[in-house]
Specification:
Elements (H helix, E strand, L loop, with lengths): L3 H10 L16 E4 L2 E5 L12 H14 L7 H5 L2 H14 L3 E5 L2 H12 L5 E5 L4 H10 L2 E5 L4 H11 L3 E5 L11 H11 L2 E5 L14 H5 L8 E5 L9 E5 L1 H10 L1 H4 L6 H16 L2 H20 L11 E7 L1 H13 L2 E2 L2 E2 L9 E6 L6 H13 L6
Helix pairs in contact: 2-12, 4-12, 5-6, 7-8, 13-15
């Protein structure tokens, strides 16, 4: 039998051991840990909606109407009127014919890729795509060819050489915060006769005047990006995920996507509450404006301090690059001593020698909190740069 204790000890010695912190209460920019208030800069709650009382009230109302659980998979007896209504709203929001709810974003990517491609097909994908896109490609049995990160020239070379059935990319990359070159990828997919799948988990709600994400940012319509994957648990502050596309795509997923067919449906009360979140994300554009101001305030302050932040990010994800895992962990612990929560991101989540603090911002953050973070970073991290 494999010695798990030895493997864990080795991981701990390398600075790669992962531990959880227990947070009490609702998730806001200030969270309670062990009875103390901490300032958090590592959530994906970009619009500050996760603890919004209007969404909480909608969830309570949804629970009264629909109960707690869905009872079954969608194709058995779990597809509720609340699910259907949310799918219709998401289709309208993304300007697609249809949308299909999945229980998680991971399951959405696994489901759509394995439903559309298989052995004998080729997938061309960005090297830094989310793990769910990588795992979906591997599970499908298709050949996976990965191009240098965000490099359309490298993507074109692979596309020309392999005639892929599918090109897949994040819209916003979760660890670097940079954007995929979607116009170039859309052109490549059209030339190759391939599907283009964009996982816009970190773009939807954040980018674009209406919060419609990376596609709105680039001015791309549904015809140029036929498969759009989005999540509900980041900017929308709720839970779950969806795939949006034309009627044929969604009907195919209902028939073939194993991660849709063989799992319990999202609780209908959550779908009901997410309607309120989606409405607020569209209506309250000030959230995106304020969020951008907080990001720019931090980036300006970090530049003055000479902090090693990634220069490609125009989103609420700003990596503070440490290099080795132990340094990233030490930086995180320095912040923790001042009750600032920023998680160290280390391999295998990121490539070797690219460990970092993944600093993320919310529309609920205030200028003085950004300044507090910069002050603590100036006292600690800058001494090690």
């Amino acid at each position: 039998m494999r010695d798990l204790d030895a493997a864990l000890a080795k991981q701990h010695a390398a600075g790669l051991y992962r531990q959880r912190r227990i947070i009490d209460g609702a998730h806001r920019t200030r969270v309670e840990i062990d009875g103390a208030s901490w300032l958090s800069f590592c959530s994906n709650d970009y619009l500050g909606l996760a603890a919004d009382p209007r969404i909480a009230e909608a969830l309570r109302e949804g629970t009264k109407r629909y109960g707690v659980g869905s009872g079954a998979a969608h194709l058995i007896s779990g597809h509720n009127r609340a699910h259907q209504a949310l799918e219709e709203s998401l289709a309208a929001f993304t300007k697609r014919q249809r949308a299909l709810l999945f229980s998680t974003g991971y399951m959405a990517n696994l489901g759509v890729i394995t439903a559309l491609v298989g052995r004998g097909d080729t997938i061309v994908a960005d090297r830094l795509n989310h793990a769910s896109l990588v795992d979906g490609a591997r599970l499908s049995g298709a050949r996976l060819r990965r191009y240098a990160h965000a490099d359309p020239v490298a993507a074109e070379a692979l596309t020309s050489a392999h005639s892929p059935a599918l090109i897949a990319s994040d819209g916003v990359f979760s660890m670097d915060g940079d954007l995929a070159p979607l116009p170039e990828l859309a052109a490549l997919a059209r030339q190759a006769g391939a599907w283009l799948l964009v996982d816009d988990a970190h773009g939807l709600g954040v980018l674009g005047k209406m919060g419609q994400g990376s596609l709105e940012h680039w001015g791309l319509n549904a015809g140029k990006v036929p498969i759009l994957v989005g999540t509900l648990g980041k900017a929308l502050g709720s839970f779950g995920a969806f795939v949006a596309g034309d009627v044929a795509l969604i009907e195919t997923l209902i028939q073939r996507a194993r991660s849709y067919i063989y799992t319990t449906a999202l609780p209908p009360a959550v779908a009901y509450a997410t309607q309120t979140a989606l409405h607020l994300a569209q209506k309250e554009s000030w959230r995106r404006d304020h969020l951008n101001q907080m990001v720019q305030r931090f980036r300006a302050g970090a530049a003055q301090l000479g902090l090693p932040i990634g220069d490609q990010s125009s989103t609420p994800i700003v990596p503070l690059l440490a290099g080795d895992a132990r340094t990233a962990l030490a930086w995180s612990e320095q912040l923790a001593r001042q009750r600032i929560l920023v998680t160290a991101i280390r391999p295998p989540t990121v490539p070797e020698n690219t460990s970092r603090l993944r600093i993320t911002f919310s529309a609920a953050h205030q200028p003085h909190e950004i300044d507090q973070l910069l002050e603590v970073l100036a006292q600690g991290v800058t001494n090690h740069c």
